[in-house]
Amino acid sequence: MTRPVLPRRYLLIALGAAGLARPARACEFFSSRMRIWHPWTRATRVDADTTRLCMRFDEVQASDRLIGLQTPVAGGARLAGPGAPEGVQGLSLPIHAGQELTLTEDGLHIELLDLQQPLQLGRSFPLRLIFEFAEPVNATLNVDYAGLR
User: Fold this and answer.
1) What pLDDT digit, counting tens, does each position of 125-147 carry?
2) DSSP letter string over 65-89?
3) pTM of the prediction?
């Protein structure tokens, strides 16, 4: 019994469509509203109880708000740095449609509180980002840089 052979044009169409899909990279994560690029922190001292979490939000299709995060390495989180609201505990980070938002060490960032262990260079940990409107995003927190601040 012979199988039907599809014309070459169908194969070319299928290959072309596959090429349009953008491959996900190891450091990017997606919600239905945006891309989250490379959540990272520095290695910490043994006695450190906080660290700075940095990342970028881009390709923002609809405005949203980061309202929480969960990771086994920290007991809590808050906004810190220039532009962070004073006296506000927890997270309430607006992310506006059509804009890119980058959290940096020297600028606005998320401070991870009550570290449960020292963060060692080269390690990675689960990170769950919780948004007001979009579904939660399971990401990876990378300990990318040495150097203790």
Assistant:
1) 999 999 999 999 999 999 998 75
2) EEEEEE-TTEEEEEEESTTPPTT--
3) 0.81
